[in-house]
Design goal:
TIM Barrel, 558 residues, binds phosphoenolpyruvate, Glucose Oxidase, domain 1, 21 strands, disordered C terminus, eight-stranded mixed beta sheet, globular, alpha/beta, binds magnesium ion, eight-stranded parallel β-barrel
Length: 558
């Protein structure tokens, strides 16, 4: 009897073998593409643990726990428990892993400087997961066994405690968390990889864009082969340190005049952001999504303010600091919602405060006009989020078109542009034929579409979903791979409806699913024009799109 087994090989070897075998005429290019997996492409783009070092760590029982594999790669560094320390040490060249209960927009600077991010709570579309993937940074999210204590600067798992400054390692491709150091190997892209990816592009029929908010990410995305930006989340521009005070001033303003004054301060920032992004991507299209998150996200947390007020009062410190904290708390209470994800966000914000949409539209068109004068042709695609009713879209569209006409007249320049919408609530998918009467393009926001169709919170459901997968109730996490029979059916309905009204309607996807190989194949099969994903997943999406064209689709519509 002969016993055989598959020869183990690294991702780099798989590509080299495939390319060499085509060179030796043993297989054709299409077979080479089918032989390589999406996981292998992904592995190539990120650092990995040295296999021997990882095996040793497992043998030494240093594997602490497992969370969600939120953003691939491997990282080793010293544990830190707040973003400021991560930024300080990371920017000084030290290797740190930022450990948080969960991350918020306030943590971005620390995430940026850390080698990896570990959170105790949150799912695959939580803040930590989405931002880390965008940065191409290793992240393990929702490691529920971890008790992270920011104040005591330590975390515990069972009987083990890891204190600030102690070494630890995380694998964002498997979700594993280790104590101590594990040697990593940097990503290296060989010449064969370039050859292979060129073949991939010759076969694929749908476009691949990137989700990017800043010129640095747009540049990376282009290097990885993106053909445009499918989602620029403009709120990420407001969260930056230099802009946050004006954003807070806008939210705290008592009246329209106060809001307009604060928005005027934000306008130059937005204009230069958009200019940078449009220029970096030209001549490819850039989809700019107008402000989406609830306003309270820009203010300090309610509990933090309460503690601050109590401390000031206990010390007998009144004065302006106390008055300011009380004023902010009152506004935070006013903005408080039981379900912020179902509340004042998306286009509802722009409808309540049209001056925000107006400022963003002005910034886009002023940037595009300036670029046109410099000889750079761009076609901004303005995208209105969370639309469920055509009336909501028309309200926002009217503002955008009015401002576009004003700016072009002032600047004596003409620029082309589109106004489209995200399809991210079921009603939008169901009434897509109606919405397409006004919207010039659709982009499926499948993070929210999954949340609103399944009724699972994208931020909190990690634990439930993990259990469902273990029980076999879910084959895969629906926030990672699209739920084809439920959310997918709505996507098909949206595409069919939209193209009944506009046969050539441009349609894409910009939820996190846009970088998942199975979902990319689904998107190609149902007739989307492009997928959009974080820059580091662009090669994976290009490869999956080629496999889809070659018939490797796993779309199983009933
Ligand atoms: C989405 O909902 O899929 C989306 C892309 O928007 P965001 O993740 O910013 O809500
Ligand atoms: Mg959304």
């Amino acid at each position: 009897m002969l016993r055989t087994r598959t020869g183990k090989r690294t991702a780099a070897a798989a590509i080299k073998i495939a390319v060499d075998m085509v060179g030796e005429k043993l297989i054709k290019k299409d077979e080479a593409i089918m032989r390589v997996t999406g996981e292998q492409i992904e592995q190539l783009l990120h650092p990995i643990f040295d296999p021997a070092a990882k095996a040793a760590a497992i043998k030494e029982k240093r594997l602490l726990t497992k969370g969600l594999s939120a953003s691939p790669g491997a990282a080793t560094g010293m544990a830190v428990f707040d973003a400021d320390t991560a930024a300080e040490k990371g920017n000084a060249g030290e290797a740190v892993i930022l450990v948080r209960p969960e991350t918020t927009p306030d943590d971005i600077h620390g995430m940026d400087a850390a080698r990896g991010i570990l959170t105790a709570r949150g799912g695959m579309t939580s803040h930590a997961a989405v931002v880390a993937r965008g940065m191409g940074k290793t992240c393990v999210a929702g490691a529920e066994d971890i008790k992270a204590d920011e104040h005591a600067k330590r975390f515990t798992v069972g009987g083990t405690t890891v204190k600030e400054g102690e070494w630890m390692s995380i694998d964002g491709s498997t979700g594993e968390v280790f104590t101590g150091r594990i040697a990593t190997k940097d990503a290296e892209l060989s010449g064969e990889f370039g050859t292979f990816m060129k073949w991939v592009d010759d076969f694929r029929t749908i476009g691949v864009r990137a989700n990017a908010d800043i010129p640095r990410d747009a540049k990376k995305a282009r290097e990885f082969g993106a053909e445009g930006i499918g989602l620029c989340r403009t709120e990420h521009m407001f969260f930056e340190e230099s802009r946050l005070p004006s954003m807070v001033e806008m939210i705290m303003a008592k009246d329209l005049d106060g809001r307009k004054k604060a928005l005027a301060k934000l306008l130059p920032f937005q204009r230069s952001d958009f200019k940078g992004l449009l220029k970096e991507m030209a001549p490819f299209p850039v989809t700019i999504r107008f402000l989406d998150p609830p306003l309270h996200e820009f203010l300090p947390k309610r509990e933090e303010l309460m503690v601050k007020i109590a401390r000031l009062e206990a010390k007998g410190q009144g004065g302006s600091e106390l008055a300011e904290a009380e004023r902010t708390l009152a506004r935070v209470q006013e903005l408080h919602e039981f379900n912020p994800m179902l509340g004042l966000r998306g286009c509802r914000l722009g409808i309540m405060y049209p001056e925000i949409t107006e400022m963003q539209a002005r910034a886009v068109f002023e940037a595009a006009c300036e670029l046109a004068k410099e000889g750079v042709k761009t076609v901004p695609e303005i995208m209105i989020p969370l639309v469920g009713f055509i009336g909501e879209f028309r309200h926002q569209e009217a503002i955008v078109r009015r401002v576009a006409a004003e700016v072009m007249k002032e600047r004596k320049t003409k620029v082309e542009y589109l106004v489209g919408t995200m399809i991210e609530v079921p009603r939008a998918a169901v009434t897509a034929a109606e919405i397409a009467k006004a919207a010039e393009f659709f982009s499926f926001g499948t993070n929210d579409l999954t949340q609103t169709t399944l009724g699972f919170s994208r931020d909190d459901a990690g634990k439930i979903i993990k259990n469902y997968v273990e029980l076999g109730l879910f084959e895969k996490d629906p926030f990672v791979t699209i739920d084809q029979d439920g959310v997918g059916a709505l996507v098909v309905q949206g595409i069919t409806g939209g193209r009944t009204t506009r046969p050539k309607l441009k349609i894409g996807i910009c939820g996190e699913h846009g970088g998942d190989p199975t979902t990319v194949k689904f998107c190609a099969r149902v007739g989307m024009n492009y997928v959009s994903c974080s820059p580091f997943r662009v090669p994976v999406a290009r490869h999956a799109a080629a496999q889809a064209a070659l018939g490797g689709s796993s779309y199983t519509s009933k």
